[in-house]
Amino acid sequence: MAYAKIVTTGCRQDPVSVIKSEKILALLAESNPGKRFSDYRGLPEYNGASSGRGLSSLLNLLSQKKIDIVIVDASEIPLQLPPEFEIGAVPKRGNPFNVLISTEDVILEDQPVDIPIGVSDISSMGQLLYFRKDLCLVMADGGYQSLSQMMISGEIGGFVINASDVEAFGRQENVVEVFTSSICMPSAGKGAMGLITRKGDRRIKGLIEDIDHGPSHCEIDLERMFLASFGKYEKKNVGVLVESEGDEFHISAVITAPDGLEKLSAAMHGWVGEEKDVIRKLSVSLLESGGRHLLETG
């Protein structure tokens, strides 16, 4: 590369991805004194470049060795990464749970039935409707800033979003309610960022290993393994959360109908070395209790 002393990174260019990426760049710089880490868009030869906005474009740049690391929300990493890539590190995970932002400043249970609440994914939609079938929920895709603007303009009365996105903007004071997993199980990978690298790149591996948080990396790996255990089925209506401590882990999962009429949940404990067996038992239990139907029709 033209800038041999610079380790180049790439991230999606939406505001929250940029903020989270900048925090990771700061961690990398702190753990590697004397090394310079920079988003590739800050280098002269990429001035004004429009490529790399999506993950596929970033992975293409990584494959071409034009960048060294792709920093991305762990929930967006494909279950089947191309074989030349790997998740090299997962910094310490933030809050994985979903939260409610609302103009009414009341929790979900007390929300008026005629006030639309924006929700950005099918799994959360189904779970929240299961909790309260009379809620006025609408699909509203977008980040914290765009959803806040929709709320200010009166298009929606509130919205559901991941807590780590709110924290990235320092707007925790706007949170009305943090949902427990019994109300709204988060999607796999939420609250974490993944550093994707070229497989076998020992130079980069050595630079990122100090910010790799073992328990968080384990949680993301197991959540992804759980989703992969469903094979061909669509997984948009699946929520899963792994919490690990030492050699023990706990995995909770739900499958819901988008209309909230059905919800299946299950949980299991396990120990290091039992991961594949625990995940197999949990997914089989959900599939055989009606989850297969929900996955096929959701």
SSE order and pairing:
Layout: E1 6-11, H1 15-31, E2 36-39, H2 55-63, E3 69-73, E4 85-89, E5 98-102, E6 117-119, H3 122-131, E7 137-139, H4 144-152, E8 158-162, H5 163-168, E9 175-178, E10 193-198, H6 202-208, H7 214-228, E11 238-245, E12 248-256, E13 263-271, H8 275-297
Parallel strand pairs: 1-2, 1-3, 6-7, 6-8
Antiparallel strand pairs: 3-10, 4-10, 5-8, 5-9, 11-12, 12-13
Describe the protein's architecture and organization.
- This protein is 32% helix and 24% strand.
- Strand 1, helix 1 (15-31) and strand 2 form a beta-alpha-beta unit.
- The radius of gyration is 20 Å and the shape is globular.
- The strands form three sheets. The protein has a five-stranded mixed sheet, sandwiched between helices. It has a five-stranded mixed sheet with strand order 7-6-8-5-9, sandwiched between helices.
- The model is unreliable at 48-52 (pLDDT under 50).
- By secondary structure, the chain is an alpha/beta fold.
- The chain starts with 5 loop residues before the first strand and ends with a helix.
- The chain folds into three domains: 6-91 and 192-212, 3-Layer(aba) Sandwich (D-Maltodextrin-Binding Protein, domain 2); 98-178, Periplasmic binding protein-like II (D-Maltodextrin-Binding Protein, domain 2); 224-297, Double Stranded RNA Binding Domain, CATH 3.30.160.
